[in-house]
Structure formats: structure tokens, C-alpha cells
Design goal:
9-stranded mixed beta sheet; 9 strands; 12 helices
Length: 276
Amino acid sequence: MTAPRISVIIPVLNAGTDLERALASVATQQRDDVEVVCVDDGSTDAATLAILDAAAKRPGITVHRTPNRGPSAARNLAIERARGEYVLPLDADDWLAPAYLAKTVPILDAEPDVGIVHTWIGLVGGHHGVWRTGRFALPDLLVRCTIHVTSLYRRALWVDVGGYDPEFVETAEDWDFWLRAVARGWTARAVPEVLAYYQRSATSRERKARQPEISGRVMRRIVTKHRALYEEHLEASLVGMYEHLAATSLTLERFYGNPAVRMALRLRDWLRPRIA
């Protein structure tokens, strides 16, 4: 193996056989300049531990074990131990299309002013369809996280923004990371193809994070931490939130029925006089 240029970092917590699929998807990239750095974030599941033990014996894969501290701390440790100039976070229950690195790495190679390359995302498991990732720009990122955590970026970006914030344990650590990056002037380029797959299951951290008490707490943390950005872009953020709720209400009606629609419409109507 040549010296790695690309470090795929995988935080692992009781992922079971999903981890094998994630590792296999990295192997299909067919490059000899890729390393995989796994951080076992306190797994107790026997299947996960066995897969990690076997993976640690493969060339190009290293495994580090820590007590459970959350995905931010696990990713930070993985990047600290990684050697590549490009970083690709990959959750243990997600996976890459075979052409992921072939379609993304050349952009960072050819365009030194671009810090991040993101792609469209295939939604599988508890959700279906394609996430056509949005603009990496303000105020878009103040309304919602517009790109997926599995996006290729320069290691220098992680250094510049100070890594992932370990205070974000339940969710949104990637959203906070991207907000700090855009605030510091980093730019991104999109590849409009499905090149990564995002799985939602009954045990997904993201499903638990959608509970109102958790999502509300995380949203308050985002707004408090990035208050200066929200104040600077207040009007545009409210307009963006209004438009997002208007679009979301149609989706809610299609899949969940009238009660969810009424909730979205109440939020939309609360915003309307504030952006008029």
C-alpha cells in the first residue's frame, strides 16, 4: 500500500453486520492510497467486536478502542490517527457506491479553492428516495443541514474549524461542523449523482434524535452557538424556513395525513407575518 491520501473514518457503536457492508464498500473503490480508520466507541455487541477484530488484521485498516464518548469524539480521534490529506467520514451503517472516490477526489485535486465535495444520497431502510443535497452556503445552512456527513473534505478544514464538537452527542454534530466551515469561508462542490447510501433503522441514532424534546434541545444549541450568524442572516433565514415548511407540509400530507400537516402549517403561519 502506498502512503494514504484518503482517510475513511468510521465511528462504530454496536453496528453488527452493517459494519462489514461499510468496509466492503470502501474496498470496492479500488485505490491503493486509501486507509480506513475505525474507532470503536465502546461497543458491547459480540458480532461488532468480532468484525472489528478481523478488520484490524487487514492491510490498510486500523482500529482504535475507546469508552463511549459519542460520534464527535470518535471522529476526532480517527482523524488525529489518520494520515490522509483528504477525509471521508462514513457511519458504520452507511455505505459508498463503487465510484464514490473516482468521482470526488479529482475535484479536490484539480480545484484547490474547494474544501468539500458532496454527492446526492440514496435513502434506504426507514426512508426511501434520493436526497439531492443542497447549497453549501448561508443562509441555507442556517435553516437545515444541506449536505450529508459522508462528504469528502480536506484535512486542513478539520484543523481550521477545530474538529467536531463533542457537546453534540445525540445528533447535528455534522451540521455544526459545516456551519463553522462555511462561516470561515470554506466552499463546496456538488456531484449530482447518488454515490453514498444513508440507512435509517429502528435503532438509528437519528430516529431517536427526531423526538421533540431532543430535536428542540439540539436546535437551541445550534442557534445559541451560531447566534451571530443567525442575527446577521435573520430575514433570509426566516424566509428559508418558511419555504422549507411550505414544501414539507406537502410531503407530510402525502405520507402522514392531516395532523402533521396542521402542525407544519401552524409553524408556517407563525413565520408569515415575520417575513412579510
